[in-house]
Design goal:
Layout: E1 2-5, H1 6-11, H2 13-23, E2 27-31, E3 34-39, H3 68-74
Parallel strand pairs: 1-2
Antiparallel strand pairs: 2-3
Length: 75
C-alpha cells in the first residue's frame, strides 16, 4: 500500500486516481505524517453473473446424506 502526503496527492490527484482505478491498489493520504484517509478502488455492489458459481456445491444424490428414513420424515 502506497503512502502519499496530502500536498503530493493534491498536485497529482487525477493521475493518482487513474492509477488506483487501473491497478486496484489503495493509497493512504497523510497529513503531517499521520494517516488521514485511504483511497480505495471502487467495486460494484451489484452481483456479477457467475461470480458465485464456485461457491455452490452440487450434490448428485440429495437423499443419501440424510438416509432413507430421515428423508421420509422430512417430506
Amino acid at each position: 500500500m502506497e503512502t502519499l502526503a496530502i500536498t503530493e496527492f493534491k498536485a497529482h490527484a487525477l493521475q493518482i486516481l487513474g492509477r488506483i482505478a487501473k491497478t486496484k491498489e489503495s493509497v493512504v493520504i497523510t497529513k503531517r505524517g499521520k494517516p488521514l484517509v485511504e483511497v480505495i478502488p471502487f467495486t460494484s455492489s451489484k452481483p456479477i453473473p457467475g461470480k458465485l458459481s464456485e461457491a455452490l456445491v452440487f450434490e448428485e444424490d440429495i437423499v443419501s446424506p440424510l438416509g432413507e428414513e430421515m428423508w421420509s420424515v422430512c417430506k
